[in-house]
Amino acid sequence: MSRRLLPFLAVLTSLAATRPASGAVELERAEGGKVVRVVGLDAANLEALRQAKWDAERWAALLAVRLDRDRPTGDDTPAMLGSYTVRDGALRFEPRFPFAIGTRYRAVFNPARLPRPPADTKPLTMRFTDLRLKRTRTVVTQVYPTADRLPENQLKFYLHFSEPMSRGDVYKHISLLDAAGKKVERPFLELDQELWSPDGMRFTLFFDPGRVKRGLKPREEVGPSLIEGKQYTLVIDRDWRDADDVPLRESFRKTFTVGAPDDARPDPKKWKLDAPAAGSTKPLSVRFEKPLDHALLQRMLWVTDAKGRKLAGTIRVSGGETRWQFTPKEAWRAGTYSLVADTRLEDLAGNSIARPFEVDVLRPIPREIKQETIRISFYVGRPF
Fold first, then answer.
1. Nearest CA among 27, 35, 50, 13 for reference residue 96
2. For residue 243, what pLDDT is reported?
3. Is residue 169 within 8 Å of residue 189, measured between CB atoms?
4. DSSP label at 170?
């Protein structure tokens, strides 16, 4: 059947199902295909399962969902992780990560592992494939930093996606091209433990530090990943699949030029604050002397009142990561406030407020800042 003929909502296909002759207990998919349920269990077993404090291994011995690879039921394919609950008269399994589109699964329920096993303990098996169609294809929504000129010792990129992405082998979908369109050899640090945000929608891509820091062997032997004065293009290919196993809608390209290395720490004394008037919810605006790390600006810069209490509100970063705005949840009251910066806040080259990323031995060694935070006071006055 052509996938174009399928509706946008879930089309739940059971490829095969084996059930006891009595038909009293069955395996099924429910809640739009998001969960697997065992229905028809007696009240005593349901109550015992409701109160059970089992570990993941024991739950999986009772009800397990695995990738279906045409192997015997007792194969060693790991069971999917997820939560087990008793609800609406059924045992319910919800996977930690959603079922992937087009992937075959096998659910096996073993009645012999019930708290009160029945006379017939023959396992029940249900095979299924999720054939949902996505309303929209996943895209790269943004890559940070957004500037089109970056320092030679640029440390990392943040790749943002519109939907959660698949994990594993991500580096084969990312390349760096020079001005002639030739691939730069292994410019990035390829980690076994990929650096994803909890929602799977942001990936942190580090340049190989051995080719960023001057004086290290990889840089001396292979050269830096980026060279001042050159132009490069970061390419994310469309074959990268999202968490539903669907390719990206399109590839993504970011072209930029490379400037001189940046070895200077961010200097809060150079930041310019534009305070709002009392009674309004207009944002506090802060301009930096150079671009700072987009992700760190979300959690390493905040506002407190005169008593040191952190204000609730929303943060917006713009201007090529040189402008930070804080809009309070409640209107400003007249008085003194503080902009508080964690001294681990970094610029694009990994220089933090506390210390530079690397030290030039031919120059005076800068004094490290020992305190964990720096406060910049500002006053919110009444409007004239």
1. 35
2. 85
3. no
4. G
Distances (CA, A) of 190 to 207, 236, 259, 261: 9, 15, 25, 23
**Rounded to an integer, what distance in angstroms lies between the CA atom of residue 99 and that of residue 94?**
10
Q: Give pLDDT tens digits for 145-176.
A: 999 999 999 999 999 999 999 888 899 999 99
* 276 token code pair: 């709002």
Distance CA 56, CA 38 (A): 17
Alpha-carbon distance of 259 to 235, in angstroms, equals 20
Q: Per residue, what are the HEC states of 125-159?
A: EEEEEECCCCCCCCCEEEEECCCCEEECCCCEEEE
> In this structure, are strands 335-342 and 124-130 parallel, antiparallel, or unpaired?
unpaired
**pTM of the full predicted structure?**
0.65
| pLDDT tens by residue, 168-224 | 889 999 999 999 999 999 999 999 899 999 999 999 999 998 877 765 666 666 778
Give kind and range of the element (H or E) at residue 286.
strand 284-287
Mode of pairing for the β-strands spanning 90-95 and 140-144: unpaired
Element containing residue 210 per DSSP (H, E) = helix 209-212
Domains in the chain: ranges and CATH: 3-130 (no CATH), 140-259 (2.60.40.1220), 268-380 (2.60.40.1220)
- d(Cα 206, Cα 177) in Å, to the nearest integer? 16
Q: Find all residues with CB under 8 Å of 279, minimum gap 6, and list them.
A: 331, 332, 382, 383
Find all residues with CB under 8 Å of 304, minimum gap 6, and list them. 310, 311, 337, 338, 340, 375
Indicate the burial class of 341 (C-beta count within 10 angstroms; 0-12, 13-18, 19 or more). buried
Using the CB atoms, write b or e for 354-382: b if 16+ within 10 Å.
bbbbbeeeeeeeeeeeeeebbeeeeebee
Contacting residues for 264 by C-beta, under 8 A, at least 6 apart: 290, 351, 356
- Report the greatest alpha carbon distance in the chain: 84
Query: What amino acid occupies position 284?
Result: L
Q: Which residues contact 381 (CB under 8 A, 6 or more apart)?
A: 275, 277, 278, 334
